Fold these 3 entries.
Entry 1:
Amino acid sequence: MLESFAHANVLVIDDNDASVRLLQALLTRSGLRSVQAVTDPREVLGRLESLDPDLILLDLHMPGLDGYTVLAQLRERASAADLPVLVLTADTSREATRRALSMGANDFLTKPLDTAEVLLRVRNLLETRALHHSLQQRQRWLEASGRITRELLAGENNEPLRLIADLSRELADADIVVTTTVPSASGEGRSLLVAADDVDGGNLAALAESLCANLAGRVIQTGRPLLLDDAGSAEVSGAPPTLVADVGPVMVLPLIGTNSVRGALSLCRARGRPRFTDVELETATSFANQAAMALELADARADQERVLVLEDRHRIARDLHDHVIQRLFATGLRLETLASSLEPGELAERITERVQDLDNTISEIRTRIFQLRTQDTDERRTMRWELLQVVDELTPVLGFEPRLHFAGAVDTAVPDGVAEDVVAAAREALTNIARHARASGAQMSLILDGMQLSLDIADDGIGMRSANRRSGLTNLAERAKEHGGTFAVLRAPLGGTQVIWTIPLPSAAH
């Protein structure tokens, strides 16, 4: 009669050992696994949290503390819906019945007990509590769905998978949650594992992740949820026994988007814990659907923001090219004209130097324009883009951003095989600066002049003061030699070290 509530915790509070043993035998034979007892009513409050009962069977007349007082204390802790109490007593007076019910007892039976009636009353109270609990669960799942939608649409959360995993693990009382998304056209699939604080992270978490990866693929393919009472069941017989040794109930939910299944949400409990119910499956499935919709809306909002950013970048790039560069170029021409009209001397030389500074500034602006126009687009993998990526990668290590200068058709005239070595040489040189130079600045130039390609990198560091520094430049020299080129290490104009890596290009490149 009580097998459907096998995992319910029932607590008997009675000072009579014979009555306690009778009730324990009756309830366990009917399907309950956990029927505990407290024979001293004064211990009830102190042990209530650890016992965590779903139902209490309470005697009224006990020494030290009567059942009415215990009932009053219980109701201060939990309502009749959260913790039902069935009073079992030999007191047949109407006053006892009215007083117990008025103080919050859910039901009342007098001794001697009819065993069938006891079982029916216990089942009814457990069913009522389960219904109340399921309504609360539905409400919490709905609130969680609303929270996900609000946070993702408002841009308040940058880790949607973690938010979904954390909320679902708490609401489903799971030990392990694994979220898996399928690869999209714009990126790779993602996976995230969240475990309860008391879970053995090295064992159960690893097993559950492997298990859920297997089950998640099935759910993503079919689009239907999967509910297993035991991970070691025949439905996953293809998995090694050691894989599922510590995993019990499993619930895997599809994250269904508008046009396809976006991924899966896998919830696992440790072996021996209660199975996931049909009600939990229903509410969790609704949550997963809402979460998938929120993910899609958040992705759409992110795509829209990305388009706006790209449009803004292109506008800035266009304005830099059409206005700033043209003005700098015109200013440089006027200064050159002015210098040519002057007699040779210090003033003319200073003007010529400022013209060169303007040319370098124009080159840097053109590099930035290229960055703006190629970020988040498919216009990638050119020589210029590769070197910009190297600079972005090593800037945190260097502590500063090197200045870049490009001259010539470096994006179109350099063969792929040569380009790979140029990028490797640039990375090697900048890495050496980060390790040894103690520099605060550096500049890198890539110049294609006719059939000669030169990579020039200079820093303002401490210079070549250690023989160990030379060993870090061996690769640069070898790469230049392989292409029939040269490699030189000089004292930089900035006071540090300058490396010049020069190679001839194959005639086929022209």
Entry 2:
Amino acid sequence: MLGVLAALSAAVIVPAPSRAATSVPQLQHVFVVVLENQDYNTVMAPASPATYIKQLAADNTLLNQYYGVGHVSLTNYIGMTDGELPDTDTKSDCISKYCVRSQRNIADQLEDAGKTWKAYMGSMLVPCQHPPLAGAPDPYQSPYATRHNPYVYYTDIVDNPARCDAHDVPYEQTAFESMLASDTDVPSFNFVVPDNCDNSHDPICFEPPGAPESGGLKKADEWSASHLPAIINYVNSHAGSVLIVTFDEATPVDTSDCDTCGRTGSAGGHVVTIAIGQGVRTQFVDSTGYNHYSLLRTIEDGFGILEQPGKPKYLGQAAAPGIVSITAPFVP
């Protein structure tokens, strides 16, 4: 009898496994943090210096079949924000000229839906910092890189100084974390890109006024361990809030895409992507095929973007066959 009672008691206290959502829940706050140029296997290797990032992957939801959409950087940042396929300009990172475009983008969608947004760029000196529309090649390569700031490639943002001042700003850790701690005017959508010393892009980097220093994956992991906890505390204490940490692309030799995404063998390669939040499953691996167009589609779904005349619900490739929203990490 004692054995039976013990078994029943154990059965009562063991929680049932959480079910995955079948659609994106209504989201209140989304944070996207983009790191640079690392293969999935490099980041997740036992000897990898990315100890903090690997722990985040183990503790939260790891999207282990997530891919970039092109090489080089700008192809991915534009893909995340307006769903475009790589073109001649973006495949050159627009280094030799300044390539603004008139495409409707996620910022336009969010504002139309009554949502707020802000992009935070590491080592950017002024809002919407970018080269002239014509003239010499882009001088902003490192530590701030124009090509990692997609919002300055849209005419309706970059040609509007007030919109720039309000939405595309330098990342300042103290001010950013104070905003989160006070829970004051936190934008609906937050897009954070560390500079090239801190995002793993540059093996050796230089952040004025300091001396050259080692960058790479180890420095990106250190930045993550210092800067992500404040965001994680926020999303874990606010319903409908999620943090997505991803890499823009793998190294150039990896041009793979997810099997269902329609571009296998011609995209940006396999990258680590992690989802974290109060309503996100913990210690979970999602093996669904995703890429940056999936991320864009997820944001559109989560913020309830609606189709309007001349304004589709999903931008560009976010509507393409095989592109699905990220749903499995969310607990219904």
Entry 3:
Amino acid sequence: MGETRKITAILPAELVDSAMEASGTGLTETIREALRDYNHRAASRRILGMRGKLTFEMGWRALRGKDEA
């Protein structure tokens, strides 16, 4: 994972409690999972924002190795 950082955050208790219950993990892992999800959504928005701006030379069949030889 690399370098870590200890943080202090002021968060609503019921938000933290419901997130921990939903994840079934402790506080640290719940926050890690939330940050991963946030980064994934941000990356997805950037990728979707490029729709129509990129040209691929390979079709989906070639990318998946399903081209007939």
